[in-house]
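Re: the pair you flagged

First of the two:
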Amino acid sequence: MSEEKKLTTAAGIPYYHNEDTQSAGPRGPLLLQDFILHEKMAHFNRERIPERVVHAKGSAAYGTLTVTHDISRYTKAKIFDTVGKKTRSLLRMSTVGGEKGSADTERDPRGFALKFYTEEGNWDLVGNNTPIFFIKDPKKFGDFIHTQKRDPYTNCKSPTMMWDFWSLNPESLHQVMFLMSDRGTPYGFRHMNGYGSHTYSLINDKNERIWVKFHFKTAQGIKNFTNDEAIRMKAQDPDFAQRDLLESIDRKEFPKWNLKIQLMTPEQAKNHPFNPFDLTKTWSQKEFPLIDVGVLELNENPKNYFAEVEQAAFAPAHVVPGIDYSPDKMLQGRILSYPDAHRHRLGVNYEQIPVNRCPYAVNNYERDGAMRVDGNGESNPNYFPNSFDSIKADESYRGIPLELDSQTGGWYDRNAQGENDHYTQPGIFYRQVLSDYDKKELVKNISFSLGLVSGPKKEDIVNRQLCHFFRADIGLGMAIAQTMGVNVEAAMKDVQHKEPVPAGA
């Protein structure tokens, strides 16, 4: 048996009466002086920190990234400097739109957020289980997420809000197709791929830059729920994905993902037929084949969910030497928004929380703020430069500037000429990626969801969205229209007369 421990307050003061409040007699009123009552209730009232605005429902586990192939000619990042090198990692997977208590089998993209504890700082790679997203400019992010949350009048989820937004933003079509296929209801977290989604850059020891996309391919094989199966599991076990991941690791059936990258040279990017930094587009794997890098294995469950999962904070801003940003507009927006969200939710010193703390040296001049628990720099100077400490800025980490092709300071139409092909890739996805069975499921799922649109604008929203499906693939549009019982000819005329085609359509 382990040694007995005394029950104490958070200040370390031993106490005995943990179940009975001090009162004026056995049936009398309680006494204000019973500090333990106040201590317990006050802490209980503050146990809930704000939940994440997005990705609130999630699961995480620790693991190891093992490098299996040499990519050091592309990057000087120390995580990749040696074949066989192992780096401790944390992976959190989540639904996007639901609250913390929602079901994790809902039709929704899944977040795929990784933290690598490297010797040159923590690298966060924050993506989804899809290589694309609904929008390509961060100014639209809040508006989009509002449509996935609750209607301000009914406080209920609203298919009308969702489809209205999507129908007015044809750039969303590619991701909508992914979402409405069975990929939108993965069988837990172990049987889905993960993607960095954004375009990043790798920088080698010669300060040469190359654009990169990160892919994590599940070694367990892709497995999805049908819509009906997902609905049943939602009622049977709303925590299915959480339980499945936790129990598989407890059984020592450690899930694995194969890390691969796609590379594009700056010259190829300049000559590419579409914007390679557009988050609504993928790179062709025929033109830019996948390159093997390593294996990620999850092999350790967190000991405490709140401490290590709820308080885990990931930010695409956190890149390490050898890995850098790109002109991807959504990535640029997330560089600001993610750390800001963590400061709001967890406090300005969120990176001192053990799950977020870099296990190697951290030297800077940040001081004070709520929950400063690392000694606050003690008596050392809190300004730079100074004449007293030995902290120096190492010139070898200077980095290289990002070359720009145009003047800065302008507002450019995200769907201007050359940026407005929202239909070619969704059409390819439908015709070449989905099996005949998957196509039928996609049509069924879209028809069901689009059929839930209600209100006086229902006809406009449905017809407008149908036009996008027709532009992607005539057969897809016809199949959805027929399943919904929509008069296609009337719908096309109706849209042309009632509303202009949305930007970029």
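Second of the two:
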Amino acid sequence: MTLKPNHHAVVTENLTKKFGDFTAVDHINIAIPRGEIFGFLGPNGAGKTTTMRMLLGLLRPTEGTALVLGMDVQKQLAEIRQHIGYMSQKFSLYNDLTVTENLNFYGGVYGVRGKKLRERKKYILRMAGLQGREHELTKNLSGGWKQRLALGTAIIHEPEMLFLDEPTAGVDPISRRAFWQLLYELAEGGTSIFVTTHYMDEAEHCQSLAFIQRGKIVAQGSPQEMKLHQMPGEVLEVTCNQPDKAIQTLRALNVFEEVALYGAQIHVVTKKDVTAASQKPVIEKALSAADIAVETVERIVPSLEDVFIANVKW
């Protein structure tokens, strides 16, 4: 891979982290253009947080190279930290301080003072919808308000890049939607964003993605590219009257890559190089023999969740 620090917010080349004999991150290569929202997905223990911690300079790589905003994380860490923001899943806020006191504290940490601090606080309170709550203790805020305040503390110094580690875990869907709207606005303003998430609806709105499993990147690209090129087979959606029984019946055939329930429907992924058209009669015949009434069996464009399940094997 050719490193392009002027065009990319993050570039890694064979980035690796070992803990004794265990390889947590295994020679990963990522290139994230500036100004994009990059989604990093994988099951627990896959290596997401370890990768982020190396990019933040909190862990030293065992092998490989990582550049953040064109700077080497092993040689220019102090300079990098002036230009990045970080928001953890646990929201690094002081619950016994008020909203304003938290903003004042983090402004001081990042060297934002005087007129500039007043301007940034005003902007953040307006952005996060916290106007009128300036003097409220943080511990009294709901999860959604804490989430937006945590984002505000992470961007108080106007960083060029933002790292978010599962920032929407544990908050309600409405708060998640409002939070992502804030991220879109930041990205439109030129901020590069690296976010880990378990939510496929959020991943759909990232410009680029990477799936990681057991420390290795198993698929990457834009959501549309991944749907078109990262599926091992084709996807059939089955609507029937006994989906639970139908799943067991279809799995017992042992001829499909994946059979999974999606709401009230079943998604059946064919083996590589096997067409959906050839498998439709197989499905219909098997379900009919099991006395399951089939309404429809149709080939569909794979969802991002289909791609994720097909590429990330537990």
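The mean pLDDT is 92.

-B.
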